[in-house]
Fold each of these.
Amino acid sequence: MFYAVSALGTRHGFATSKHGQLIGWFNKEFIKTGVFKRNYGKTLRDAFEIRKQGDYDAFIEF
């Protein structure tokens, strides 16, 4: 998901390697303006949180 939204950012002149910045930009440009439904922003945030848990927590429960 990160790379898909990152490609969207590149297409619109925005580039970052930080997940948090990318999510913030996506929400500002596409969720708050109504281009995408709010559930897309929530799904992106949830996926980021799960990735962080998988990368940094000793144990994760799915």
Amino acid sequence: MLQMAEEFYTSIGLKPLSPEFWRHSLIQKPTNRKIQCTASAWDFCNKMDYRLKQCTEVNMEDLISLHHEMAHIQYYLQYSKQPFLYRDGSNPGFHEGLANAIVLSVYNPVHFHRVGLFNNSTDTYELNMNFLMTMALKKVAYAPFALLVDQVSCINHIRTSNHNNLFLSGAITYSKAVLER
């Protein structure tokens, strides 16, 4: 799956992964010790050592996660020649936005067919509707919650003692949630 992700990035003109990446990245859960398996990408700030840590299994969720983390690695590779102060995203959300945009290019039936993960070559109405509904449930339905969390976290910096009521009020306003008492 990691090679599939690398092929995707090189196919759009980005850099291949270094031998150090392949040698030092952790892509399977070790059996001899316990580790935190949360996927993450690492820049060791020496302009050549970038690593991925993800306990992958062969499934769609890990394939998408690999592409997401590889977007971070590609970002590190692209800015490696910059002075140290410029080797970071323009703001905290930029890396995530870039990685999520790449995932949208990967997570679709056309790409899955192209790489041999999906056999149906016909572009049917039902296929498109199912894909669009999946994307709506994964991405669009999350937007009101994300907005609410962002707003409440900003208000938290102001030090209010009414966090729960603010959150519930926002849940009603943004997602039209109705809470039973």
